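Sample pair:
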Amino acid sequence: MSKLHNLRWQVFVLVLTSFALGFSEFVIVGILNDIARQLHTSVVSVGSLVTWFALIYALSTPIIATALGHFNLYKSITSLMLVFIVGNLLSAVANSFGLLAISRVITALVSGVLVSIAMTFANYIAPMDKRPRLVAGIYSGFSIASVLGVPVGTWVSVQFGWHQTFWLIVILSIVTLILMFICLPRDIVPPKSNLKAQLSLLTDKKILVGMWLPMLNLAAIYPLYTYLRPILSSQLHFSAGGVTLILFLYGITSIVSNQISGVLAEHNGLRLMAPIYVGLIIMLLIFPLSFNWRLISVLLILMIGIVMYVVSSPIAIFYLDIAEQKYPQSILLASSINSIFSNFGIALGSATGSGVFQDKGLSAVASSGVLYAILAIAVVLIIVKLERIQK
């Protein structure tokens, strides 16, 4: 049993945690149509769950993370995982849109803090030279959720009903909780500090600028990602099997994206993000023009998937380095910034996609993210300038 308490098993549990969180958050994208049909509501209404989930996630995470900032990490992560299981259990038995919405609120309330605590564990247990790759590994759990969770969840929903998809998440989450009990160290407690001391992190100029980058990154991509299944089925006319396969391939690109992200984090990767976002802008603009050539459309979707998470590890390390050097009492809050503002970006991007979908149709959804990508370039350039000035 003692062999389970080594770094490899601890990392596995943290990655499995992020996988369960990503599975629960992203699966709505794959089962959007099925929920709308069974609950007799519109696809846009169900799509709004993506927006509200992300918004609640982003708003609740800093509050809860700050409140738990000096508590034992093991007790915090296991307690919140129990709440996460309850939220998904309610989704699994929901027979109305209202109950489903409530269940998603409960799940969203704890998801962001669970990510933050997993990142904080990584910061404490990983040797300094391995930290960028471990951070990328934790984020890869979300990508693996795209590879396996969303396509498998979509297939289960089509074959057996969307309730069974949430039962699958409940079982996975229980297994994860059991492994937490077995594997995670129980003696890690962040330094004690008052609320004002923890929030001092948010007065740092580089933090205030850098927090916008994960938001704008996902705001640029989520108009497309939120309505990816309707685009594939209604606009590009793929069969249910074809949609599942493309979602699987999209997930593969997300894993590639995270691996690239880990490499970039080891080589000051924020400096390389501006040209990457220029490429994203070009892809988003030409995507609506590719609908007559399905292969080109799919290739563009997969290339956008590669861009989706490349900023995650460099920006997470950016926050953690600042906290370690100047605000050590704010490590948990620093660990949460990426997930907080990523979900603001998800909320903004999915809301933008919903509005454009209603007003102009599916063909205009992808290009609605272009403005956010342009703003992301501006943020990257400001960060690079601030880094140069402070050196």
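The radius of gyration is 20 Å.
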